[in-house]
Amino acid sequence: MKIIADIIQSIADKVDAATTFNICVTRDQMLERGMKLWQRQNKSSPKNLTVSFIGEAGIDSGALRKEFLTEMLAGIERRFFEGGIDGKVPKYSMTDFEKYNFRTIGEIFAVSLAQGGPPPNFLMHWCYIYISTGEFDLGSITEKDVVDLELIELIKEFYTIVRLLPMLQQTSSGMKLYDLLTLVQQENNICRQLFVPGSFGKVDADFLVQSLSPVFSEIGTMRHQRESTVVNFLQDFVQAMEDEGKRMNTTQRPEKKMRSTRLKNKTMRHINVGKFCQWLTGQSHIPLSYAERKHFKMVMEFDHDCEVRYGANHTICYPVVNACSCSVSFPVAHLRTYAEFKTVLSQAIVNGFEFSRY
User: Fold this and answer.
1) Selected residue with higher pLDDT from 353 and 204
2) Candidate CATH numbers 3.90.660.10, 3.30.70.580, 3.30.2410.10, 3.40.50.720; the one for domain 205-351
């Protein structure tokens, strides 16, 4: 019996490493630009996606691709689907249907699964059933499957659901890339967890902390003590982000949550545990297979010599990230208190996704 790791490996093996699929975008309007550039490519056979960001010196050895796919999947979910925690359905729009071929969305799903990106696990169950079987059972649709409140009274009218089927058909067509659709049809139950909510999620504080791999100096030295302090600061920082996110999700409406966050701390407005992991590694999702999760490490290194290089009176240094090797170097001299650590790291995350140094 196949497991998820087998499914992922099967489609990954079909990536054509000899033929690149180049995407070069700016970070602004990444979804719109990414969709447009994707549709201009020749998609006659599986390709090996490589990504670059205009104006940045980063060379894609995997991290840029993961970051691009992470942003694209999140953008597709927001822009083209609607619903809640039980899953989402295509957002009906003739304009979007004509402008953005949903076949492209299916291809992006396939490439994300094959090349290290997150799973598109946000579909309503009936949408996945239709994609995987080609069958549509109106009797299986309940009120919670209709996300448009104005349509609940029309639940028994076939048209309210059927008009979404062409979008799902095009998505299925795009998923033929790497033979993903065939695998989904053959391994319906196993693949369900890749497309329906409940099995995979974004990283949380526990997963991230357990993945940390500090490179300590010799035990007993002053350097080791300072490094241990930085590690503790990082654990507190990550757990505080997660706790704050939980409080905001349970006590405030979305529009108030955003407003109060900006007023409270403009620097922290974009930061959560997933963003931190994406800043460091290019991805905000937990690796899909057990083997990937087992070997997923984030290396912490420590810079004790910035005062030697820049002088004792220089103002600030920021952590330096190497996303391709999943490592970050912390400037210990600027992280003596938790308040300093929080300020420096928050600024680095918010402003430091570009491949440049401060």
Assistant:
1) 204
2) 3.30.2410.10
